[in-house]
């Protein structure tokens, strides 16, 4: 049970990091670069 909750915690952590990453990119990356991608 401990192992299961730990892996769940890791998955949640990854999702949180991805969300942070996306919001950080939106704030920091200029609009010009968004057009390129």
Outline the structure in words.
The chain has helices at residues 2-28, 31-36. The chain is rod-shaped. The protein is mostly helical and 37 residues long. Helix content is 89%, strand content 0%.
- Helix and strand composition category: mainly alpha
Question: Can you summarize the main beta sheet?
Answer: none
- The total count of strands amounts to 0
Roughly what is the average pLDDT, rounded to an integer? 76
Q: How would you sum up the global shape?
A: rod-shaped
Quaternary arrangement of the chains shown? single chain
Order of helices and strands: HH
Low-confidence stretches: none
Rg for CA atoms: 15 Å
Percent of residues in helices comes to over 70%
Count of helical regions: 2
Beta content comes to: under 5%
Distance between the termini: 43 Å
Q: Secondary-structure map with pairings?
A:
Elements: H1 2-28, H2 31-36
Summarize the structure.
The chain is mostly helical. The chain is built from two helices and no strands. The longest helix has 27 residues, at 2-28.
Name a few traits of the molecule.
2 helices; single chain; rod-shaped; mainly alpha; 0% strand; 37 residues
């Amino acid at each position: 049970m401990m192992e299961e909750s730990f892996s769940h915690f890791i998955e949640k952590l990854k999702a949180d990091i991805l969300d942070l990453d996306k919001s950080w990119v939106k704030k920091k990356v200029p609009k010009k670069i968004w057009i390129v991608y």
